[in-house]
Amino acid sequence: MIKTQKARLYPNRTMKKVLDDLCDYRRYCWNQGLALWNDMYDASLILEDKEFLPNERKVRNELVADKADWQYQLSARCLQLAVSDLGKAWKNFLNKAQPDWGKPQFKSKKAPRQGFKTDRAKIVNGKLRLDKPRGIKKWYDIRLKGAAFLKGELKVVSIYRENGKYWASLPFETEIEIKAKTGKQTAVDVNVGHFSYTEGQIKTLPNNLKFLYKRIKHYQRSLARKRKANGKKAARSNNYVETKAKLQRDYRKVANIQHDIVQKFTTELVNNYDEIVIEDLDVKRIQMSHVASKGLQRSLFGCFRQVLNYKCQLYGKELFLADKFYPSTQRCSRCGFVKTGDDKIGLDGNMKHKTKHNEYVCYECGATMDRDENAVMNLLALI
């Protein structure tokens, strides 16, 4: 089982330069590879010949053949792993079922997070050691914090720089830690502002997150107005740079709050339950009429599923995914009646029958219950 540990890096001046150069090189390799991939793909469409279709091997070989002298001073694995990730991104693009579906985009040097990957890093005497290219004389191990109990062989390490700080995600092989059996089952119904499960609710939209969403939207609009009024010159103004820095600061705060919510709830689930059911939702289609920053809130739902799946595998728990078309909200958990057409419950309840958004009234058996509790019971019935 692969377990990942996040650690803060404290490189000296020499290794800071090395990490910055590798971040830039990773971005360069990705952009060069993407441009080449796009050209090959367009050529295959124009010539109607599948032999011109790009793949990871073709793109990598051409980039290696065209390497400039300065590239040999940097890790060759940085290029190879960048092209490997590019191949995976294109594979996801051709599969719309992927939660992060979308065409691969070029990387910007202005992005707040810059990083690279390596599969040749080691932990030596409590420090991170990167592979040293040929001809380089000065090279140092990097002090790190947060991985004191790390044991096992490192896999592909992700290193990134954000807000002037350096971090590493250290994946390593570990034995599966089987948690004690509880004999209990639960289901999680995902809602805009909370997760509902058999023991109650977990808020996913606390007041501090709502405030940050509104402030982020304000900063985004402010930057958009500046760009519209001044074009490319806007980015050079001190006011624009200051506003953008505030926006990035709030993005980090949102990520930290969401991470805390997801980690605590998923840990509670795997500690207390042996079997867990969640919906296989298309998060991009979740309606959020009253959320200021819909994209950020949707990212929380995608993260929840990913983290829960990881922890269930790690601790030997069983995770069930309900089909995305399963009518957990519209079905009566007592008699099985499914609402259709004008009888369906929406965000505002049902106008035809004048029911509230948080209640479920069955038109077949007459049962009245909480909407979220009804959905949880329907999901539990799938086990």
Please describe what this structure looks like.
- This protein has 2 domains: 2-173, no CATH class; 185-322, no CATH class.
- The model has no long low-confidence stretch (mean pLDDT 87).
- The strands form 3 sheets. Strands 2-6-7-1-5-4-3 form a 7-stranded antiparallel beta sheet.
- It has 7 helices and 14 strands.
- The two termini are 25 Å apart.
- The longest helix is centred in the N-terminal third of the chain and has 35 residues, at 13-47.
- Strand 8 and strand 9 (194-197) form a beta hairpin.
- The protein is an alpha+beta fold and 383 residues long.
- It holds the Pfam family Cas12f1-like_TNB.
- Residues 301-379 form the Cas12f1-like TNB domain.
- One of its GO terms (molecular function) is metal ion binding.
- Keywords: DNA recombination, DNA-binding, Metal-binding, Transposition, Zinc.
Largest sheet: 7 strands, antiparallel
Alpha-beta content class: alpha+beta
CA-atom Rg in angstroms: 25 Å
- Beta strand count: 14
Number of helices: 7
How would you state the average pLDDT, rounded? 87
**Which residues form runs of ≥5 with pLDDT under 50?**
none
First-residue to last-residue Cα separation = 25 Å
H-E string: EHHHEEEEEEEEEHHEHEEEH
How many domains, in number, for the residues?
2
| Strands ordered across the widest β-sheet | 2-6-7-1-5-4-3
Percent range for β-strand residues = 15-25%
Q: How would you sum up the global shape?
A: globular
Instruction: State the helical fraction.
Output: 40-55%
